[in-house]
Amino acid sequence: MCSGGGGRARIVVAFPQGLVPGSGTGPWSQPGSGRRKWSVPGLEGSQPHMTVQSHQVKDTAVERLSGGDMLIRALQDSGVDYIFGYPGGAALHIYDAIFKQQRVQHILVRHEQAATHMADGYARATGRPGVALVTSGPGATNAITGIATAFMDSIPMIVISGQVSNELIGTDSFQETDMVGISRPVVKHSFMIKDASEIPSVVRKAFYIATTGRPGPVVIDVPKDTTDPAVLFDYVYPETVKMRSYSPATRGHSGQIRKAVDLLLTAKRPVIYAGGGVIQGEACEVLTELTRYLEFPITNTLMGLGCYPATDPLFLGMLGMHGTYEANMAMHHSDVILAVGARFDDRVTNDPSKFCPNARIVHIDVDPATISKIIPAEVPIVGPAQPVLQDMLAALRERIGADPELLDRSAHQHWRQQIAGWRRQHGLDHKMMERAVPGASIKPQAVVQCLYQVTGGEAFVTSDVGQHQMFAAQYYHFDAPRRWINSGGLGTMGFGLPSAMGVKFAFPDAVVACVTGEGSIQMNIQELSTCTQYGLPVKVINLNNQALGMVKQWQDMQYGGRHSSSTYQDSLPDFVRLVESYGHVGIRITDPADLEAAMREVFSDKLRDRLVFLDVSVDPDEHVYPMAIKGGSMCDMFLSRTEQS
Ligand SMILES: Cc1ncc(C[n+]2csc(CCOP(=O)(O)OP(=O)(O)O)c2C)c(N)n1
Ligand SMILES: [Mg+2]
Question: pLDDT digits over 594-618, tens only?
């Protein structure tokens, strides 16, 4: 075991004006639901603090539209091109409105969970909010997993749910469910339409809330009577939206940035720890510039992969539970950490009381509730990553430009050498593909390496959840943001295929690969039919270890190898025949000697326009390493079945 550290003092964060964390009465202040429950008095009811400036979009006469038509028109005016959804009684007026227009295309999924994941994948790849539409009752409840997935990873999304008519609400009528109530803990905000006339302004506000500050999903619950085609309203799309009680920070505090610069200049063993907030905040470019200017080593969270080029020598790989040895060692032994858009979650910190005992921390986040929530920051900076880092870089340039000695470059060089030593000792083996022995079992890591090589590192890669997800995160090197798309916070099996489809709708010419496991793919495998309907040539790489591999690994390591309900006893389908029945191409391999040729076939020009499912029979006994030792510090890791750090 490496040396651990003690606890640390808690430091109070100053909150930006207009946001009050805690116990208010607004919809974002539900007890027990964790973070970012800002009290916004009245936001859900009469909304006295929210105003929208209404202007006619065109200078022609005001159009008279039904509620259903206004909803779709407002989506058009919000720039929506796709709605992923599934119809039902309460949503039928809306579906009729969709039918009558061409600007927004509706994609008919096979399960509402998949609709939300498609909208999510679309949003992660583009940075624009994804939109899902479901009916009331079971349609709405089926969407919850996807909403929670987006919430946990701060993904902008609009989910429109049909609702029973106003006069039926509260009567336990057919397919009535309290969607606003059920979704409350996992949305950034929700609206219930009371009067059809408010539809355009609610849509406008929903997009504003979903995309500003810390992004997240917003639900709009639409009672059927408010979309009645027989009742017409003046349609006016609000040009601007002003919400007095919701004012996310737009810049960092200059005094705090100055303090952060002072601290960074003291560093002898610095590390930059960057998360998904850097990607969501469009701050990758400035972060890269700042990192290279300082020549500080940098590590990314699972959600942050791609925010800094993975092939750059300063990059240490992912940190945390299955992070690289060198990233975790560097974090633990650092003296200054610059954390940006990351939230110190348990998969990163291991035991928080032993976390990086000597590190002084600068923490930048747009969400003040995240700062010092788990690990106290010495210099908290509330603000969007991009302008904060720009200001920080400008200040650093000014200070170091005037006095280059301020930066201890020789200490930093020594530090980078120490990290390189750790990498040499126990870094990931990036030659598993080349070293594969024909006839032996295929190593899952080698499959990801092969995928990386064949796609030239250019693919959008989505994943499901399990060992395959960790192998993809470890072995595919993402040099650009928004290319690695996975459910980090909620860890949702079933995310991979539909999110890949959302990416493919957004970027039809891009190469989109879903790295999955035979367990996860079966959670939304019905979407292969949607792929057939819309001709979506995503590529599915199934790391088939014939087990719920990650569960089995934990059972190996913590439950004496008792595989309680983590294997299937020969009940798996023949994936090749299954995908062929949907009209797709299936390929199965079992020998490492066939890996490269098969992978080239999957991405060949010949199969460019086909969905190809590569079912790879991989070593069922492989574990993911490194793996954090529970209850330890960041430098306490299992390195193999027999070695510990
Ligand atoms: C919806 C859901 N249910 C259960 C889990 C718990 N879980 C995490 S990984 C895993 C196994 C995944 O199996 P598979 O997709 O085959 O991936 P592998 O680990 O074998 O690569 C399970 C059951 C989860 N993350 N999501
Ligand atoms: Mg599996």
Answer: 999 999 999 999 999 999 999 999 9
